[in-house]
Amino acid sequence: MDDAHIEGDLTRVLYSAEDVARRVTEIAAEIDEAYRGKDLLLIGVLNGAVMVMADLSRAMKIHCEMDWMAISSYGSGTQSSGVVRILKDLNTDISGRHVLVVEDIIDTGLTLSYLISNLRSREPASLEIMTMFRKPEAQKNMVKVKYVGFDIPNEFVVGYGLDYAGHYRNLTSVGTLSPHVYS
Ligand code: 5GP
Ligand code: MG
Ligand code: MG
């Protein structure tokens, strides 16, 4: 494989672009069913959720609005810092709205529990979570996630919006990086 091609940096592909697309379509159908006739606002968490937000929302057939939040959790490495800051807040007042938070991945759930309590204080009519990937740690957490793309092993993955040091978000498949990338 060509070294200049990002896919060549993966040691293992966990999910192909087709696997991801199929699962996103299934979840979109569930969301269509659950929110039919409701005033739905999707909140994407930047930057990782950009890809899933774009695909999920277009796989849905019901009306929705979209807004975005940016929070910081990880730095450029692979360890959770536990520090959460709002870098960009919503443009929308969510009080009385049916809100579905769209996430790329939940690891410890630290970032999400902070976000959810923050959003809950704004008194939405309902507040649910969709995440494309979820790691085992998150199960111990109190945050209830309604829609999960895939439960994955406790490994650092990239692709489909997920980065390592800002790179690999544009990879259409999802997998683990080869050790040479880290060194
Ligand atoms: P948590 O607070 O749940 O531990 O971490 C959530 C955030 O950490 C995610 O939104 C994502 O930015 C980052 N993260 C957690 N696990 C991974 C991973 O396996 N790969 C990548 N690229 N980012 C991850
Ligand atoms: Mg995220
Ligand atoms: Mg990141």
Explain how this protein is built.
This protein has 183 residues and is of the alpha/beta class. It has one domain (18-152): Rossmann fold, CATH 3.40.50.2020. The protein is built from four helices and nine strands, in the order βαβαβββαβαβββ. It has a six-stranded mixed beta sheet with strand order 4-3-2-5-6-7, sandwiched between helices. A three-stranded antiparallel beta sheet has the order 1-9-8. The two termini are 20 Å apart. The chain binds guanosine-5'-monophosphate (5GP) and magnesium ion (2 copies). One magnesium ion binds next to loops. Its main location: cytoplasm.
Features:
183 residues; Rossmann fold; six-stranded mixed beta sheet; 24% helix; binds guanosine-5'-monophosphate; Hypoxanthine phosphoribosyltransferase; metal-binding; PRTase_dom; purine salvage
Q: Can you lay out the helices and strands and say which pair or pack?
A:
Layout: E1 10-15, H1 17-35, E2 40-46, H2 50-59, E3 65-72, E4 85-88, E5 98-106, H3 110-120, E6 126-134, H4 137-140, E7 147-151, E8 157-158, E9 174-177
Parallel strand pairs: 2-3, 2-5, 5-6, 6-7
Antiparallel strand pairs: 1-9, 3-4, 8-9
Helix pairs in contact: 1-2
Bound molecules: guanosine-5'-monophosphate (5GP) and magnesium ion (2 copies).
